[in-house]
Amino acid sequence: MNTRLLNVIGLTKSLGTGISKLSVLGGISLNMAQGEFVSIVGPSGCGKTTLLMCLSGLYRADSGRVEFNGVEVKGPTAGVSIVFQDYSRSLLPWKSVADNVLFGMYREGDTPSREKRDRASELLNAVGLRGFESRYPWELSGGMQQRVAIARGLASRPQLLLLDEPLAAVDAQTRAEMQDLILTLAARYQQSCLLITHDVDEAIYMANRIIVLSNRPTKVVCEIDVDLPENRDQLETREDPTFLRIRHQVISLIRGMRTPVELEHTQGASR
């Protein structure tokens, strides 16, 4: 993991205009190497998704610079794919499961259709959806729909897969299964991944490195190496003293950034 894949320098971004203008990103700098799995966490509403949209080229930053493979990102970039949180909106309901995955290869005009179909079949098998190729997204459970979205995200063979809280809308059991699935796919395809999540346990379980963000206007507070065994287990990993130490560190940082109103709300909910 020595080749620099992503480089972010002094990124700023505001949303809205006039008196409603809100400064979201306040000069973020970070980097990511080829082959890394990086998690980004921070207080609720700090701008994690806004950051991801800037990294993908879907938002234009106000200032600063995003570089992918040494080239400045000025719009949607070949080699970068996104899996969004809301699979019900990101999947195309009028297309079959197979055609949704094939849609991820739309830029590959020169690739033979048979090769694309074979790749889609391989990915659907990899995410456990063999036999569902002709179904439509609305015929599947939420977890299955997100599996389709992940397969589509991998379909273009991206160098970087951006994951925007992809498991926030599924139940706890499905979430654990999907965490392990994503890690398995990342290892199989040697996939570089950047995960946005509000779940600290998930961030630690899945990543090689965690980046903690501050409140708005958002900056990087610290970066933490996750020194856990490469092969993760839902029970053993989460009981590892290193896991618990990192969990304590990250939660303490985020709690320390909460406003008095947020702390009062949290304390009231726990009574």
The tally of strands reads 10
CATH superfamily: P-loop containing nucleotide triphosphate hydrolases
How large is the radius of gyration?
A: 19 Å
Quick check: average pLDDT? 90
Cα distance, first to last residue?
Answer: 46 Å
Structure overview:
This protein has helices spanning 48-56, 87-90, 97-103, 113-126, 142-155, 172-188, 200-206, 236-239, 241-256, 260-270; strands at 4-15, 22-33, 37-41, 63-68, 71-72, 80-83, 160-164, 192-196, 209-213, 220-225. It is α/β, with parallel strands linked by helices and 271 residues long. It has one domain (4-257): P-loop containing nucleotide triphosphate hydrolases (Rossmann fold). It is globular and about 50 Å long. It starts with a strand and ends with a helix.
Strand and helix map with partners:
Layout: E1 4-15, E2 22-33, E3 37-41, H1 48-56, E4 63-68, E5 71-72, E6 80-83, H2 87-90, H3 97-103, H4 113-126, H5 142-155, E7 160-164, H6 172-188, E8 192-196, H7 200-206, E9 209-213, E10 220-225, H8 236-239, H9 241-256, H10 260-270
Parallel strand pairs: 3-8, 3-9, 6-7, 7-8
Antiparallel strand pairs: 1-2, 1-4, 4-5, 9-10
Helix pairs in contact: 3-4, 3-5, 4-5, 7-9
